[in-house]
Structure formats: C-alpha cells, structure tokens
Amino acid sequence: MALKQGIYRVRMVNQSPIVMIPGLLCTADLYRAQIAALPPDAVIIADTVRDESIDAMAERLLAHAPPRFVLCGLSMGGYVALQVARHSPDRVSGLVLVATSARPDTPEQTAVRRRLVALGREKGIETVAETLCPRLLGPDARHDPDLRDRVVAMAKEVGIDAFARQQAAIIGRPDQRPTLDRLAMPTRILVGTADDIIPVECSHEMAEAIPLARLTTIEAKGHLLSMEAPDIVTQALTEMQAAVSEAPCGRQSQFDAGPNM
Questions:
Q1: Counting beta carbons within 10 angstroms of the beta carbon of residue 124, is it exposed (0 to 12), middle (13 to 18) or buried (19 or more)?
Q2: Nearest to 188 by CA among 166, 169, 167, 214
Q3: Which of 17, 139, 172, 252 has the highest CB neighbour count under 10 A?
Q4: How big is the chain by its Cα radius of gyration, in Å?
C-alpha cells in the first residue's frame, strides 16, 4: 500500500527502518519503486508539507521517527536529512543523499523560486509542474509520459500553499558545508550526470567532506533518480539497511569502506 506524507509505519523487527524524505513538490510516490521493493512496514515517509523551514521539517521528523533509523532524502529531502543528521547524529544509523547539496540558496535561485510560487498562484500548481518537468527529468525520462504524469500528480497533491512553504524553507536553508566533516555515520551519495537542478559537483563536494561517504554517479540520469534509476536507489537503500543492521553498536559497518564509483 502506498504511503502518504505524515503517515508513519515502523517495521518492528531487528532491522533499521528507513525514513524517506520527499523532495520539493513530491509525495511518497517519489519512492514508489523503493517502497514496493522493501519488506512490508520497512518504510517511514516524512512530512514535508506543513513547515516553513528546514529546521522545522527536521524537528517534525525526529518527533515521529523511531530511536534509530536509516535516513534517505532527495533534493529538498536531502537538505532535511543533513539537518537531522547534524542535529541528532546518534539516531541516524546510515545516510543516503540523492541529488542534493549542502550549499545554501543563491540570490539567483531564490529569485527563480519566488517566480515559481507567483506562477503557481496565478496559473495553478499543475503549470509549475509542467514547467519544471524538462529540468526535473533526464534526457530520456522527460519524454516518458508516465513519469511526467507522476510528477504533475505529485505536485497537485502537494498544492500551492505547501509549495510556497517548501520554497520558503529552501530559501532560508543554512549552509551545511562547515559541518559535513562531523557526520560519522556511513553515507551513500547518488547523483545523475544529467541533473539540471543541482550541479554534480555538489555531490562530489559532500563526498569529499563526509568521512564515511561513498559516491555513485549515474550516467545520463536527471534529478528525480528514485524514479529514473529506481533499481540503483533501491540497491543503495537495501545495502545500507543491511549493513547498519548487521554492524555491532559503536563499530563501523562493512559498508563504510566501500570505494567511490
């Protein structure tokens, strides 16, 4: 059964649950393939539609999440994931960062975000989604009608008011680069070479700064990697979950020493 934002299901077995954080204008459908591939009740979907700051989103996640969990965030979800990992590192057993960045917003990006909110209020959130689709999806995926329909459907479910709150949160997000070297949990970073939203070098920057990070670069894929390269994202999550579940407390997992790809 698909999960909606704000509905939390925790897997009550001896394995780390996975908290997945949707990106901007996204719902749990962003992780449809991963939810379907994971064991029943293994997934928790974070709520990213009610708050106007990344810190508030992180606080809401922590208030509902179990004591220990694997954390996955895509794009805006990655901003939240980094905030959670920085704030409560003892609760994050493993970190998966997908198509995201530790950098703050630039003035140019902020201006574009505000124009998109104005466009959504004037012409509707569906227009915003259709405008963004060519940049959200890679060169092949942007011609896939099913993926485009899913992007638009997620946007309609999020709605213009939540979109405005999310954009305010992204605009006000902190620069998290100075604290990356303090993240001690095993970390997997995934990026597509055709990502038109966040430069690929942002992923390399994080991979170089986080001590136990492993970077995977996926050729010719765009921003919404969980939809465009679902098997690779699912594999990263299942490997992380298995590794941190098997590792004794206080020790590095077998995942930690993996080479960059």
A1: middle
A2: 214
A3: 17
A4: 17
